[in-house]
Amino acid sequence: MRLTRIIGLVLTCAVCLGSCDRKSVPQWSIAELSFEARNTYANPYTDVEIYAVFVSKSGDSLVRPAFWNGENEWKVRFAPPRENEEWAWTLHASVDDPGFMNRSGTLKSVPYTGTNRLNRHGTLKMSPKKRNLVFADGSPFLLVGDTPWSLPYRATPAQVEIYAQNRQEKGYNTALLIAVQPDTRAEGPDQRNTDQGFARGFSDLKDGHLNHLNPAYFQTLDSLVQILYDHEIVPVWAPLAHGYGWKGRQALGPNVSGEEYARFVRYLLARYGSGPALWLLSLDGHGDAPGIIPAGEMLEKWDAYRQPTGLHYNPCDDFLATWAREGDGHCFHYNKKHQEAPWLDFQWAQTGHDGQHQYHKVAKMYENQPVKAVMNGEPTYEGMNEGKYGLGYWQGEDAWNQLLHGGTMGVVYGAVSLWQWKISPAESGWEEWTNAPYSWQQALDFEGSRYPGFVARAFDGFDFTDMEKRPDLTGNNRLLLAKEGVFYYSYLEKGGEITIKNIPAELPCFWFDPLKGEFRSRKVAGTSGIFTAPDTLQPWVFLAGKKQSHD
């Protein structure tokens, strides 16, 4: 998914008649093939389906769908998963068009020599025991996410440069995005960086449909994604919202047809699925919208890289919301719809925006079978309700505890005004509970934004893949995540002591200060298994394991 620069070399094999010449592309960089239709189509987005099959000399076959890029142009993006291998490709189309017929060529993958962590390690996949994420090469990936949901339709490239640099420096590695403005009744200028304005991805979204796509919107989005990748930030793609949306003005997600939703998800897969990505098929919903299953099954069939797919629920998991009607399907989803579906890899709870620490949700979800990775995907955003909730270290406390209680996929942070991408502090149009007098750029540096990133700093270099809840390994029944004999993590809210049974005597052990984001002390485990925090005046993080560079 890297555009004309995305994570490395982009190769354009434009309108090749017959066979294209052999080209070289670094491993996990994007080879981009362009094709021009000779015929004219009433609606190229809906009327034409194209895909390319890439076959390696070792016999592997990867299929990548194409996307319409405007006018008569279609593109296919492909990232070779191994170095020093030849891939032969052939193009297939649903229409008889001379521009698509008899198209074939070869690509030669070569070693990647750059420094971008995403390009070095590849796309994402689930860990062997399904508890968290790893890169294609098996390196661990703890999701540390931010929620600039509205960035795709409000931000400019210059703004995203500021945003991405800020978040990379603070340790964030993912950005949760709504691909297009999701409210059918939202109004404002068709313009970025303008009060009330937003760019339109579909001209008919306001009418409840996704049939008339605007290629120029996605060309701009390409440039924004490029910036995120340059800063080693992985997009988490929510195609639409299924709950509140942007301004609470009738989000399209629950009502769009399954066919239209799955087609749009396929378009996103074609355009952005060759680089690291996560697919979030339901955002702030109950998991039963018409498009969820068709989109999930489409990804299971067409995502050659098998990147993780999941659902993000609203807070009304086991209770009837005060605003809901008796039996309203919006409630009682228990954060586990489609638990057995083969296309589903992860489940995300939401604790809502009332400033409450709620850890029971991920604890329950952790026990569900079959195992799906779980996480609290939406804690109270800092500054919600006119600057009252989730302030400062509230965010760090919530992140460390959500992880410890079973949200082993990672942690997420949010900030008022940033998630809406408010252009100015006084920009109007939001309800009081989700508003505060800040712009998106002012919200970047709320105090609490520092603390979730410290989780990434603490875990960097450890082999925590498939860490599990293991309170049975503690002598005083404290909560503990462990990969027995390899890695251990616990959060002690008021310092104190933790006892760990059978921990290897020579395993390096660390105390990490979650307020300052730094390691305070290091020693080997020894034979007693008793570990005492540096003091009892603040929270401390205990970590044990051999650290190594994952770069």
Task: Describe this structure as you would to a colleague.
This protein is an alpha/beta fold and about 550 residues long. About 20% of the residues lie in helices and about 25% in strands. It has helices spanning about 45, 115-120, 150-155, 155-170, 215-230, 260-270, 290-300, 360-365, 385, 395-405, 440-445, 450-460, and strands at about 10-15, 20-25, 30-35, 50-55, 60-70, 75-80, 85-95, 105-110, 125, 135, 140, 145, 175-180, 235-240, 280-285, 310-315, 345-350, 375, 410, 470, 480-485, 485-490, 495-500, 510-515, 520-525, 530, 540-545. An 8-stranded mixed sheet has the order 1-3-6-5-4-7-8-2, with helices on one face. An 8-stranded parallel sheet has the order 18-17-16-15-14-13-12-19. Helix 8 links the parallel strand 17 and strand 18. Helix 6 (about 260-270) runs parallel beside helix 7. The longest helix is centred in the middle third of the chain and has 16 residues, at about 215-230. Mean pLDDT is about 95; it is low at about 1-20.
